[in-house]
Each structure stands twice: as C-alpha cells, then as structure tokens.
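Human:
Take a look at this sequence-structure pair and walk me through the tokens.
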Amino acid sequence: MRTWRKASKLAAVVTVAGGLALTGTSAAVADGNPAQKRIGQCGTGVFLDGIRALAVSENSRDEVYITSNGTKIWPAGAYVSMAVNQRVEVDKCVPSNAQIRLMEYDDWPDPNDTIGGFTVQGERTIDYEFCCGDNGRYRIGAIA
C-alpha cells in the first residue's frame, strides 16, 4: 500500500511539474522568437527591439537608418522605407551610454537629415523617441 501511495504522489508531482513547465514558457521563447533569444546576448548592453513610425518627415515614407556613436548599425542595406504606423524589427545590441541617431536618407546632393537621437540608459527598459527633425517622429523599444 505504501508503494502505491508513493507511486501516485510521484505521478501527481510529475504531472503538475510538467504542466508548469509548459505554461511557464513564454510564447516568444516557445515559438523560437529570434528577438527574444538575442536579448540575453547583449551582456551589459541594451537590446534595440522594433521601431515604429509615428509621423514621417516626407510625403508618405521616410528612408531611415540608425547609427550608434556615429557608425551605421541598421539596416544591412542603405535604409528601410517606412510609412506612418509601420513597425520594423531592429534587433541590435548597443552598449550602455551609446549615442543613437535615427537618420533620414537623402539622395545626392542633399545631406542626410537627423530625425532625432538619444543616449541609451543601460539600466532601464524603456521606449525611446526620435523626434522631430523634418517633422518625423519614431519610437523604438530598448530592453536592458
């Protein structure tokens, strides 16, 4: 009888623990979300998540790119063309206290324009805003 009780208790514990393991996993990690996996890879830096266009500086779209401490870090190509309310993944790690700038690409002979910038605060998870060069306004999430 004691063996049966022990076996039933063990089965109950395994069932509960298995259920907790399944329900405790976030959807982002369970789906293999690459952004979620990269957050841990930033070490003492900050993970830049996605950028959203709240207002564009040109007629219908801006051609944007991001610099960190004066070096272009995103996107891999020359720029990303964004419309109002569009969101695009950035998925980049930057060091704490980095100077981040959102730039609007212009063809020759005009120079590229700065939409806005900020200094990363490494100890905080926050939404930063790039504002208001040429009336453009963007928001980006930073996860410390």
